[in-house]
Amino acid sequence: MPNTKELKNKYDAIVVGSGGAGLTAALQAHELGLNVVVLEKNEKTGGNTSRASSGMNASESLVQLDEGIIDNNRDFYEETLKGGGLLNDRAMLKYFVNHSALAISWLMKYGIRLTDLTITGGMSKKRAHRPASMEPVGFYLTSRMTTQVKKAGIDIFTGAKVTKLLQDAKKRVNGVEVETPDGIKTVKAKVVLLATGGFGASKDIIKKYRPDLVDYKTTNQSGATGDGLKLAEALDAQLMQMNFIQVHPTADTDNPHVYLIGEGLRGEGAILVNKNGQRFVNELSTRKIVSSAITNLHEDGAYLIFDSGVRAHFAAVEFYDQIGLVEHGTDLADLAKKIGVNGANLEKTIAAWNKSVATGKDKEFGRTTGMDRELDRGPYFAIHVHPAIHYTMGGIHINTETQVLDTNGNVIDGLFAAGEVSGGLHGNNRIGGNSIAETVIFGRQAGIQMAKYVRESK
After folding, report:
1. Which CATH architecture fits 10-200+393-457?
2. Residue 309: phi, psi to the nearest 5?
3. Which of 26, 138, 243, 432 is 20 to 30 Å from the Cα of 144, by its Cα?
4. How far apart are CA 244 and CA 89, in angstroms?
5. What is the pLDDT of residues 62-115, one digit of tens each?
6. Which domain of life is it from (predicted)?
7. Active site residue 172
8. Which of the following is catalytic: 127, 210, 279, 287?
9. C-alpha span between 193 and 447 (Å, rounded)
10. What top-level class would CATH report for the domain 248-389?
């Protein structure tokens, strides 16, 4: 990364944050002729996006058709709306769904190929697009996008924390103050985008809106402290649905570093069991339902159980195993002994599950997806999981053009926001695979709208 001494004092557009939304917006705005700078407070790019592991949802994509999957935008819309408790911003959701397939194709242009498909909770079709290499989608996306941003000649600075948004006499946002290793600098621009992510690692904001969750661990990177919300709030931006915080059902919280166990593992056929070795929920219900079911066991979490067949279809398991999160058993009895669950029951549970897979009917919990393979190939594996704070659905109120609205519902001139820093798209529960999609879909829209704004303000 270049030294912040090389930071110029003027650009067409400033992008604050270098996760999926920031990197996408920078590339899209650059394509449309803007001179862009990306400012990132952390020492490396990627933000929370780099931790995502399930996929990027899209409907009616060419990838789906290549796999013989006939999907439609209407179903994607309805299922996401239902998953969000009917509290999603309808206009935002419509834009999101209708531009999802296009976002997959746009990434292809940059050599970012999401050509493998899986399914996540609350969805009826395989919509989660991921790399064929099975690399975790977030790191695959952000590492390659960072390379593309540099290749395009876009200035990108790490260790550069934006501390203030600047406005001119007409209240148009026209720059930022940024803390760098060389001191505080003022950078002017015609337009500013907040792509700073959520507040899952901010104890003070969580305490304010959801005191009941303040002691939960988080899967977020430590920089997810809601900086963009504070910057926007200082300009009277409206925050919305701030109490909607998603708890992810399957995180390994036994170590100082919390690891998210991607939903794709259940999408490939893993099941959840309690201490008694029994299933207790449809594993691919929404995250809200599955998290509550685990919490209500009052048993120090639950266990994800899978076999070698499932493992072969979810490459992130190799990483989980490497860092010591995976228990191994030559057979089910051996695995049960190692994790301290009832062995006889576990064997009965797996036999019943395999029968459900064979008939395509889960009479016990009504699961209908992630039933492509029986759990019958040893060795067997288990991961101990607990719910953890994962995603903040609330945030800055924006419109479909990614313009930031103030507390009276008026547009704040020159200020845009995209990604997890914004609120409204997901309602009270985000569907797995929709956050990566949001960063690319609304990151592109932000890039387009910033270019339009700059052209019109000449």
Report:
1. 3-Layer(bba) Sandwich (3.50)
2. -65, -45
3. 432
4. 14
5. 999 999 999 999 999 999 999 999 999 999 999 999 999 999 999 999 999 999
6. Bacteria
7. no
8. 287
9. 9
10. alpha beta
